[in-house]
Design a protein that fits this description.
223 residues, three-stranded antiparallel beta sheet
Length: 223
């Protein structure tokens, strides 16, 4: 819900797809080689089963291309809304799909224990376990001071919980530079040495993105 609140505000209070506010929403798109009537019947069966079992509380079905575009616009603008607002601690992690709910519950409680007014902007990709866990500064706190105080403690906390769930500290967006040195904590010396061996075999002069992805280890090319 905080993610939806933020993006709707950013989009100048665009209408929510659902009339009521709910804690969690899922955007589902079905595609098929079958005819449209068969696909619609499949969607209705999914929703009816969910409603009957209490898994679904409410639903909105796109009835036009404009509806589809508006649904996806809301989802895709969450990231930009955070950037424009400022003060978002962006943790791009993944956990096994079966552990998403438990991870979010634990990580949210731990972050809120540090800063109770934090806005918990959480969204992602249900199918592959990628969670964009992005605590956002309180409305009355400036971005610079919030990030200075909490960026590293929160990032370390979230990464540790993801790793404990047999997940990854970096999913969709890769290791890059920000999480490069964190690999020493989550990868063994043997794994890091193997990574460097592959790097040296493919890039013996260390010309491709030097200083990114791989942390410096003994015997590795200087980054």
């Amino acid at each position: 819900a905080p993610a939806l609140d933020l993006v709707l505000e950013y989009l100048s209070n665009a209408p929510s797809p659902l009339p009521a506010r709910h804690d969690w929403m899922v955007l589902i798109e079905l595609t098929s080689g079958a005819d449209e009537d068969s696909l619609n019947a499949t969607l209705m069966e999914i929703l009816e089963t969910g409603l009957g079992n209490g898994w679904v509380v409410d639903a909105a079905v796109a009835s036009s291309l404009a509806d589809i575009q508006q649904f996806w616009r809301i989802r895709e603008e969450i990231s930009d809304a955070q950037t424009r607002t400022g003060g978002s601690i962006k943790c791009d992690i993944s956990v096994p799909v079966s552990r998403i709910a438990q991870f979010i519950e634990k990580a949210s409680a731990d972050v809120l224990a540090l800063e109770p007014a934090t806005r918990m902007v959480i969204y992602g990709h249900m199918g592959d376990g990628n969670v964009h866990f992005n605590p956002l500064r309180p409305r009355d706190r400036d971005a610079k001071s919030f990030l200075a105080q909490w960026y590293k403690p929160v990032s370390d906390l979230v990464d540790g919980l993801a790793h404990a769930e047999n997940g990854s500290i970096s999913a969709e967006h890769g290791i890059g530079v920000a999480k490069r040195d964190d690999l020493r904590q989550y990868k063994s010396q043997v794994e890091l040495e193997l990574m460097w061996q592959v790097k040296r075999a493919l890039d013996p002069k260390n010309l491709l993105n030097p200083g990114r992805v791989l942390p410096q280890i003994d015997g590795a090319a200087a980054s």
